[in-house]
Amino acid sequence: MKSFAIPVRRLCTLGVGAALLAVFAATPAHSEPDATEGLTLVSVQDSLLGTHFWYEQTFDGHPVLGGFYAKHVDKASGAVTVDDGRKAVQGLARGLRGVSVTAARADASAVQQTGGGAYRSRLVVVPGGAAKLAWQVHTEPATGSVSTLVDATSGAVISSTSLVKHETGTGKVFLPNPVVAQQNNTLTDSSPNSAFTYNTVTLNGLYAKNKLVGGYANNVSKKPVSSSSGTYSYNRTQAGFAQVQGYFHITTAEEYIQSLGFANVNNESQDYQTTGLTDDNSFYDPAVDKITFGTGGVDDAEDAEVIWHEYGHAIQDSQVPNFGMSEEAGAIGEGFGDYWAYTMSQAVSPNTTKTPWACIADWDSVSYTSGTPHCLRRTDGTKMYPGDLDGEVHDDGEIWSRALQDVNIALGRTNANKVILEAHFSFAPDTSMPAAANKTVATAQALYGTTAANSVKAAFHARGII
Ligand SMILES: [Ca+2]
Ligand SMILES: [Ca+2]
Ligand SMILES: [Ca+2]
Ligand SMILES: [Ca+2]
Ligand SMILES: [Zn+2]
Asked: What is one process in the GO biological process aspect for this record (predicted)?
């Protein structure tokens, strides 16, 4: 039930009073608004069947967030339908009492929060039992307009919300790669296209259908593919395929992170490109926050596990600025990237002898490995800390990825990933493996208690880390 701390007054703010009075005169009295103070007409629209009056709810002259009132007048019968979406406003004094934050200071907070320039700000009422005044600031970063609410009394940022409407598209991808999906480790880079099976998927979060640019992934490849209908169905012989792979698998990884409850782990449109590097290598460049996929051998972006490994670096860089400032921190970065490929594949593929989850990049690695299963690296190795450290971050990362795999087995995928991601926030950029392991154990303790913490401790202890 809605209640209002608004005295009843005549509707006096209408620019089209005459038209409205005429409507009222033709309709029964009971359909008129009962509390007319605090309603500002913002739009009158004619449609085939009626006329639609849209009002914004106000309190003391300020718009009430989310509050609305609509009146629909049927053209044929004159019947009036009211849609009363006004919000309760309680406990708020009139006359701007308590407002100590200037518009300029609110603008500066919003600019800092969103990275875009401020172009509009106004005082609004945040409704509820303890209603308050806030500055609503619109900024426009490269990813589209954002509305930020800044508490007009304390100056705290209450929320930041993207105003961009998202579209969906469709595309064809490998899920996670053809060796795993088809359980066939005889496929090679020169196999005919007819040997490959593709998955048709939905591309979420596109800002517009015609480009692979959206909430979580930003295709900055040269000659980016385009489709006015949002249809991105390419096969691996076409340049567009790798671009779609990048968009889909980055977006899926970030959607998963968000589903775990993390709102601020690389919550942005991650730049990636599938062109310009002919090496059989891919990398994440923290200086420009961009992932580049090489095209040597099997094009790297054809294997989602390579995409997820690189996205692992983007994840950690967003959680800990400049993460990886020591050899062991670098090894943790590589180990986490491999683990992230492992756990993303876990969700979309079976764990088989032919393609065990522990085997990373089963498809990309057919170009440079001979035995089967083909693996770039594995997460089930037996290397020990510190004796097996060789000073090369990818090699040493296998110590860390094995420990994370064991955490995953002990806690289950969801809880393990919550612990692992949460723990990253307190890693130092130049952490040692023991320090990071201890943070992870403490995180497990805080989230899930002693039994979970002991399992995590055992996983790191088994590698000699703690
Ligand atoms: Ca990023
Ligand atoms: Ca290639
Ligand atoms: Ca490759
Ligand atoms: Ca794999
Ligand atoms: Zn890496």
From this structure: proteolysis
Question: In the structure, what pLDDT confidence band is assigned to residue 19 with cuts at 50, 70 and 90?
Answer: very low
Q: Where are the domains of the chain?
A: 17-85, 103-162, 165-466
Q: Which residues pair with 206 in a beta bridge?
A: 167, 214
Ligand 2 mean position, distance from CA 198 (Å) = 18
Q: Compute the distance between CA of residue 113 and CA of residue 148 in angstroms, rounded to an integer.
A: 8
- C-beta neighbour count of 267 within 10 angstroms: 14
242 backbone dihedrals φ, ψ, rounded to 5°: -65, -35
What is the length of the chain? 466
With 0-12 CB in 10 A as exposed, 13-18 as middle and 19+ as buried, what is 242? Answer: buried
In this prediction, residue 68 has a pLDDT band, given cuts at 50, 70 and 90, of confident
State the Cα–Cα distance between residues 341 and 353, nearest whole angstrom.
18
pLDDT class for 16, splitting at 50, 70, 90? very low
Q: Closest-lying ligand to the alpha carbon of 348?
A: 4
Characterise 134 by phi-psi region: left (phi > 0), alpha (psi -120 to 50), beta (else): beta
Q: Tokens 């972006």 identify what position?
A: 301
Identify the nearest ligand to the CA of 361 by its number.
Answer: 4
| C-alpha 41 to ligand 2 mean position (Å) | 60
- For 466, counting Cβ atoms within 10 Å of its Cβ (0-12 exposed, 13-18 middle, 19+ buried), the class is buried
Helix (H) or strand (E) holding 45: strand 39-46
CATH topology of domain 165-466: Neutral Protease; domain 2 (1.10.390)
The pair of structure tokens assigned to 109 is 């907070």
Nearest ligand atom owner, CA of 300: 3
Q: Which fold would CATH assign to domain 103-162?
A: Nuclear Transport Factor 2; Chain: A, (3.10.450)
Q: Which of 262, 278, 189, 202 is nearest to 424 (CA)?
A: 262
Q: Is 365 helix (H, G, I), strand (E, B) or coil?
A: helix
CA of 370 to the centre of ligand 4 (A): 16
- Whole-angstrom distance, CA of residue 450 vs CA of residue 454: 6
φ and ψ at residue 65, rounded to 5 degrees: -60, 125
Q: What distance, in Å, lies between the first and last C-alpha atoms of the chain?
A: 57
Tell me how far apart the alpha carbons of residues 330 and 334 are, in angstroms, rounded to a whole number. Answer: 6
CA 356 – CA 276 distance, rounded (Å)? 32
Pick from 411, 345, 414: nearest CA to 379 = 345
Token pair of 76 as six digits:
């044929």
pLDDT at 108 over 80: yes
Least confident of 12-16, 303-307, 320-324: 12-16
Which protein residues have a CB closer than 5 Å to ligand 4 (ion)?
Answer: 345, 359, 362
The pLDDT of residue 351 is above 60: yes
